[in-house]
Amino acid sequence: MIDPTPATDVVVRPMREADVATVVAIETEAFSSPWQEDTFAGLLDRPGVELLVMESPAAGVIGYAVLWCVLDQAELANVAITSTWRGRGLGRRLIGTVIETARERGIAKVFLEVRASNDRAANIYRGFGFTEVGLRRGYYSDPEEDARIMMATIPARTPAS
Questions:
Q1: Residue 99 gets which letter from DSSP?
Q2: How far, in Å, CA of 102 to CA of 34, rounded?
């Protein structure tokens, strides 16, 4: 049973090499075609890639996100929270941090793909201003499924008056 208590003591920080094995375990739990350890390890020092983990003092790394940044656009490539920590708003919190990271980098638009059947995730993304802008037929495998392409415009931070 999932503890419904909000997890207020979690932090989001940059991913380190020591986090990769745990991130791969979360990835494998969350996705039918998971990325492998060498993929994450190869992205650690790559320019334009933001790798973030969500960490609980009690449980260690409980989630992660991958944001690819090119010029003023980015793609939210992967985001996942381990199953025992879902249902506490942590995914929303992590996505919010990703959006803020994109804003800090001067990103104007963030894109993502989400399984056509994954209404729960699509609704979370809509809460951050993402709208559906296209469809990729047969994008996912295992099982084969279309992907909704979603995009959010990231307003620049305005200077405080």
A1: H
A2: 24
* Active centre residues (catalytic): 113, 125
Overall domain count for the chain:
1
Q: At 131, phi and psi to the nearest 5?
A: -125, 155
Q: Which two tokens stand for residue 106?
A: 């001067």
**Which DSSP letter does residue 116 get?**
T
pLDDT in tens, 82-135: 999 999 999 999 999 999 999 999 999 999 999 999 999 999 999 999 999 999
For the beta carbon of residue 73, count every other beta carbon within 10 angstroms. 15
Q: Which CATH number goes with the domain that contains 78?
A: 3.40.630.30
Rg over CA atoms, the chain: 16
CA distance to 14, 81, 92, 110, per residue, from 70 (Å): 19, 25, 24, 10
How many residues belong to the chain? 161
What are φ and ψ of residue 60, in 5° steps? 80, -150
Q: For residue 124, what are the domain limits?
A: 11-153
**Chain position carrying tokens 């739990």:** 29
CA distance 142 to 6: 33
Indicate the DSSP class of residue 155: P
